[in-house]
Amino acid sequence: MISKKVRELFVSFMEATDDSPVSYDMETEQYRGAFNPVVVDKYIELGALELVDDGSGDITILINNRDDFLSSFAAGIREAKNGSDQAYADYNANPFAFSVGYEHFHKIAKKKRPNQEYICHGFENIATGLIHLQ
Predict the structure, then answer these.
(1) Model pLDDT for residues 62-119, shown as the tens digit of each residue
(2) pTM for the model
(3) Can you say whether residue 68 is alpha, beta or left, with left for phi > 0 and alpha for psi between -120 and 50 degrees?
């Protein structure tokens, strides 16, 4: 099980928009925002993230192997939507990203009134399961 703080960090990347607390630059593939520095430092040490800039209160980072992360995150959501269990993570290129996506889907699905307009970075619409990798 992924901790809440870790899931929130990686989901904040997936939800990044111009008007959200985390922004994403498509040209540089960098994420900028106010992140939990303890969690960020842990994943920098593990090699999942790379620190680009840590100035003026905001942190700018890259997700290493971003395409693999997005693909595995999408696979986790897809399998959760299909009712599969999380054991499929073992067969995925990035089991961590798969698990984050899987758990994120279940968190969103538990809401009494899911937001049909919800946009998750890398996806067009989580409610329909349409995958659109950017």
Answers:
(1) 999 998 888 888 888 888 888 998 888 888 889 999 999 898 888 877 776 656 565 6
(2) 0.81
(3) alpha
Angle between helices 95-109 and 66-81 (to 10 degrees): 40
Structure-token match 């899987």, residue found: 102
- Amino acid code (one letter) for 25: D
The β-bridge partners of 61 are: 31, 51
What residue type is 12 in one-letter code? S
Distance CA 37, CA 102 (A): 24
Using an 8 Å Cβ cutoff, are 35 and 9 in contact?
Answer: yes
Residue of 92, 25, 96, 98 lying closest to 58 (CA atoms)? 25
